[in-house]
Amino acid sequence: MFERLPSNWMLTIKSIGYWFWLIPVLGIPMSYHASLRGEYSNAWPWLVVLVVFGVIPVLDFIIGRDSANPDEAVQVPHMEQQGYYRLLSLAAVPALLGMLAWAGWVFVNNETWNWIGQLGWVLSVGTVTGSIGITVAHELIHKDPPPEQNAGGLLLAAVCYGGFKIEHVRGHHVHVSTPEDASSSRYGQSLYAFLPRAYLHNFLNAWKLEAERLKRKGLPALHWRNELIGWYALSALFLLGFTLALGWLGALFFIAQSLIAFTLLEIVNYVEHYGLHRRKLDNGRYERTNPTHSWNSNFLLTNLFLFHLQRHSDHHAYAKRRYQVLRHFADSPQLPNGYAGMIVLALFPPLWRTVMDPRVRAYYAGEEHQLSDSQLTRS
Asked: Taking a C-beta distance cutoff of 8 angstroms, is the pair 123, 260 a contact?
């Protein structure tokens, strides 16, 4: 629908469309108020989940892709300096934290829902904190200014996944698409085999990386300058606040939405790197990361919701680029739908492999030994 529009038009459309992140955030209070007025009160709390994972994949197909890239010489330097795009991402932080606190109050105090409505509410809130919250956090922790770094860490602490701030930048981006990276899913590996290792690796490797950093400074791992201690302490304060304000149900809500949010993050990791790897060179080292080492998804609608996160190939090749100037590379491996649709597909391993395994094999056509030697797992 938009693929043939001039690049300048698309850049203008997207500069406004990035505000779409507000739609799922505002969908939380909208679904609550609708449940109070409608006879299907226990169905409305599921609204955000159903729209994100049911409606948006269909709309991605209908609306189509966006192949517009900004001009590197003229537009990129200007766009990267525009405070508008930075303000847009930072504005999501108070909105998300306010939504989270209010949603916890609703979970505890709304007596019109049974357990079905409560489950839908927690899943919807976790979907928002996982999709919008962690996406914004991901954008911010890759940037150098301390306000952005701290805002990203704050959002991660709000879902009990502060280790991601360390492990993602200093671990995943270094070892992406190699056997050393637990966040890069292997060919033939099911989502359910991938998740436990990803959870554990994120936590343990973050501590290892931070301990190594402190050791170089002559400091022990258990030191106040250990960044992880601060972020996990902040998560504990969030939990304490929910508990004191809302009781044990408030604590349950906070933990549950956190679990949903960081699980959604790891499912996206599974989707972004499935079966792809950096080839091992004759000297035993891996080739440098480039745009062919991550799955790209250029569907316009989901890219607007997720601050161009789906242009993941460019992000891994050039991690410091801001979301508004990430590029589409036609020669990167391409996903057949946006992230929402691919997440649903990943939940059903036989369907996932039916769709994705032929694409991986096509990518390695002529060098299948790379696939069998480095990636083949059956789990």
From this structure: yes
Q: Which residue in 184, 335, 209, 190 sits closest to 273, CA to CA? A: 184
pLDDT digits (tens, 9 = 90+) for 95-130: 999 999 999 999 999 989 999 999 999 999 999 999
- Strand partners of residue 296: 334
Render pLDDT for 17-43 as a digit per residue (tens, 0 to 9): 999 999 999 999 999 999 998 778 999
State CA 227 to chain mean position distance: 21
Beta bridge partner(s), residue 65: 299
Residue 185 DSSP code = P
Q: Tell me the H-state helices in the chain.
A: 7-17, 22-37, 47-50, 56-63, 75-81, 83-109, 115-128, 134-141, 146-157, 163-167, 173-175, 191-216, 227-273, 300-305, 312-317, 339-346, 349-363, 368-374
Give 280's strand partners: 286
Is the pTM for the entire model greater than 0.90? yes
In order of 157, 160, 162, 197, 341, the CA distances from 346 in angstroms are 26, 24, 25, 16, 9
Rg for the chain (alpha carbons), in Å? 21
- In whole angstroms, give the CA distance from residue 66 to residue 72: 17
Burial of residue 83 (number of CB atoms within 10 Å: 0-12, 13-18, 19+): exposed
**Distance, CA of 64 to CA of 57 (rounded, Å):** 10
